[in-house]
Amino acid sequence: MGWTGSGCPELNPVERFFEELRKWTANQVFTDIGQIEQWLESMVRKYMQQPQAVKQLTLFPYIAEGAPSS
Known about the structure:
Low-confidence stretches: none
Mean pLDDT: 77
Oligomer: single chain
Radius of gyration: 15 Å
Protein name: Transposase
């Protein structure tokens, strides 16, 4: 599969995650690249501690149905 763009989050589930990040940064003003990196790192760590939240954002039914059960 090639590039799907941001118009098809069902085909590229990570777009839902990026959408959440964009919501959080919508009205933020960063003073330098280091501040942006620090902020992104803190957000990624937050989601790493909440795997259920990531699943909720990215696990579309067609993916869950096709995934092997563990």
